[in-house]
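FAQ: What does a multi-protein file look like?

Like this. Sequence, then tokens, then the next protein.
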Amino acid sequence: MPKPPVPRLTVITLGVSDMRRSITFYEALGFVRKMHATGEVVAFFDTGATVIGLFPWDQLAQDATLPDQPRPGAFRGMTLAWNCRSAKEVDEVIEFAVSKGAQRLKPSHMTDYGGYSGYFTDPDGHPWEAVVAPNIEVGEDRRVHLPD
């Protein structure tokens, strides 16, 4: 029996309504765009561990054989996270994102689990949490390090 494949998350692709606006937004947040040869057909950003991909919403839905309409106006059941090293960094990340066109969803606050977090959305409403979580270390390499 062959060995099973090694599980890994490599790319998170976000459906977007305006490629140019979304590319500009993610570049403004400081994510480094790679593979510029794809133009505005698809965009890839290095996140330090995985990749964020941007693809036109209707084409992504078609590719996944899902309906393009109606587009959800409510919670989609997932968030993206930007883990931080301190509460001060959480506040800075949220203020920075808002200054680049994000919408603030929830102000930074102490959480019931002993962390500190707040939320913003990208131009298409994809929610991001900026967070400091107990026992989740953000190293000097800016990557998340989880305990065993």
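And here is the next protein:
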Amino acid sequence: MASDEITFTIEADDGSSDELTVPADMLDLLAEEEDESSATVVGDLALISCAQRIHGAVHHGHGEAGEELEAIEEETLDRFEERFGQSFAEMTGHDH
């Protein structure tokens, strides 16, 4: 049975935008709370993905990450903890 789809428009401060269409049922499954909005679920997923990618670049990439990349990771992980109320390490069980 095909799921209904939901489309999100993502707009950035620089004027760029993108659209993303995903199965609505997937968002229902991923919601932490019954009344959590689809937009919140997608926002959570976006931040989790960003945190995973910057963490991978800093700690699992080839060579030294450098101070700039480490500062970006630190800022990202701070925002992660603000949003989720726990650290990336606590949420994922992956700590360095």
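Q: Is there any per-entry metadata?
A: Some entries carry free-text notes. For the entry above: The mean pLDDT is 91.
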